[in-house]
Write a structure and sequence with these properties.
530 residues; alpha+beta; 5-stranded antiparallel beta sheet; 13 helices; 33% helix; disordered N terminus
Length: 530
Amino acid sequence: MRLKLRVFLLAAVFLFLLSSTAFTCTIFAVGKDAMADGSTVITHNDDSSVADFRLWIIPAMDWPEGSMRDIVINSHNYIDYGNYPYVDVGSKGVVVGQIPQVPHTYQYFHSRYSFINEMGVATGESTFGQGNTATDLGREIRQVMRTDSWGIIDCWTAQDIALERATTAREAVKIMGDLIEEYGWYGSGECINITDGDEVWVAEFYGNDIWVAVRVPDDMVFVGANTMRIRDVEWDNPDYAMYSPNIISFAVERGWYDPDSGEPFRPADVYAPRTGMNIREWRASNLLAPSQNFEYGQIHYPQFIKPDKKLTVWDIFTFSGDWYEGTEFDLTKGFGAGPFGDPFASYVTGGRMRPIGIPLTCYLQISQIKGWLPPEIKALVWFGYGAVGTAYHTPLWPSMAELPEFYRTGSRYEEFRRDSGWWTATYVQEMSRLRFKDAIVDIRNFRDPKMQIMYDTVPKLQELAAELYEVDKEAAIAILSDYAYNTAVAWQADWLKLGDRLLGHYAADRVNFGGTNYPKEWVDALNSLK
């Protein structure tokens, strides 16, 4: 029997949290033939002003027959997961139901969102709002799909359970879809990208019990930026499409789609109709395929993009931190960027447009899965805190026995801590803003060669571990765990020193005690205001 949740207090809490996060996450999903090394990739810029940045390992567990799993609304909000499954959600989450537990659950990483398990299944997400409330139809869609139909499965719960149980991306999609059909969706709509090293899927959850998922072609890339984008669906091809059985009939019953119109049924157009463009989609499309010269201002860009060249993790890392450099919207240019070209200055005034890479990024995860490797070896994620353009990322495997302490230290609601990974990244990010045009050169000169060493080392290490895995599985996992742990610790120490160096070099508007040295164009602009 489907459960319905109509708790007004929870709705109010959700809407408050929604207003704080402001729909800002960007995701990529990359097929294996679009990557230079044949891996698949999904990403998630977790952009939020409220996110719990701590990173936990949720261990694999065997469960006695008859065990039940709690369903918790808002389960990722500053709750201590250090002694799982003995977790007290306290006032941070609300237990709203239970479902039968499976006999075995897999190990996975849990942060603001959970994102990869030991079997090499990885997920990301980008939130959207149901219906454009500027129109009568949009308000009706929002009312019907969300306000009138609260369920008990939110995005966090759906991803958690999928990672606990799935060994493939296809299986993860099916798990989430079945949960929504049985128990209903809670919260705003979500676009979730999923991969396993072979297939890449994108699923959109519109509210109520309505959802659809499409497989990304192997040579293509999908981009999500807080809008629903699944318009073209191969309805009769189960290899490339999955969906709720009532996705079309429900829209027909509501009068949102006329099957006799001759128009194809496009789920995103029906359940999340758009009236304007998304500049991040435009920018990402042109970064992926500049030869196509996508025109600015289109409402819809292609659902999938074939990149001009095969991609690397570095390419994707760079795209994820983009602030329109080299375009007419370049956030390092103009009066709004201040005297030193600060792209993190307000991008909501003076024609400055919201970029992919923003200062409110909690973390970026790039899950890179190599389908030909053993599960624990292929399950690799590149993880880094803070605004991507001024950040680093480092490799982690969810099969690790433990993480460095700095990953679960601190809170953005507490004092700055030098032993906290997120605070250290934020420290470097904010120190760069003292004199950005010079500081970003310092950051790149320090960071980029070190990252290249990792890009060269990690594939070799994975292949070595895969050979050892055949004779000694635990030793193979230990090699990767030790490398990941020690590399992360070294980055944390080096990044803290870099922050200190930037502070000492650029504080008090001084560069080697040479004064502010404002650029001439900035001085001229100031003088013109007199």
